[in-house]
Design a protein that fits this description.
129 residues, alpha+beta, 3-stranded antiparallel β-sheet, 1 helix, 6 strands, 11% helix, 22% strand, globular
Length: 129
């Protein structure tokens, strides 16, 4: 996973409490690998993302495939990761029961303010499950 997440809805509880998370967004080039997967050639050439961390690394990892991820009884996708080497739609942050799947690897010192707040909010959120 790179340092960014694709911009989705910021209406989920994890973006609201206990800390308000309103990350600045940027337009990044669509990773060339996205075109190698079904529907990837229909994605915009510039994609709206926000920085979760600042490492400058471009890892090709993923928390999980989004295909079937939410078929479970108690799972949800919280954010899609901007991913070089994988496909658009790969889970960057997800919840499976009371298990947080956090696809970013930076220590808090390399997370953005929004990334740190979101991480804390996610832990608080999953503690109720």
């Amino acid at each position: 996973m790179s340092d960014a997440a694709h911009v989705g809805s910021f209406e989920h509880d994890v973006y609201r409490k206990p800390f308000a998370v309103r990350p600045p967004t940027e337009l990044w080039d669509r990773p060339s690998n996205y075109r190698n997967y079904e529907g990837g050639d229909k994605l915009p050439k510039k994609m709206n993302v926000w920085l979760v961390q600042k490492t400058g690394q471009k890892a090709a990892s993923v928390v999980s495939s989004s295909s079937g991820f939410e078929d479970g009884d108690d799972t949800e996708i919280i954010a899609l990761g901007y991913n070089v080497g994988k496909y658009y739609g790969a889970v960057g942050i997800g919840r499976d029961g009371n298990f947080l799947q956090w696809g970013y690897h930076a220590p808090p010192s390399q997370m953005t303010d929004a990334g740190r707040k979101l991480f804390v909010n996610c832990i608080k959120y999953i503690s109720r499950f």
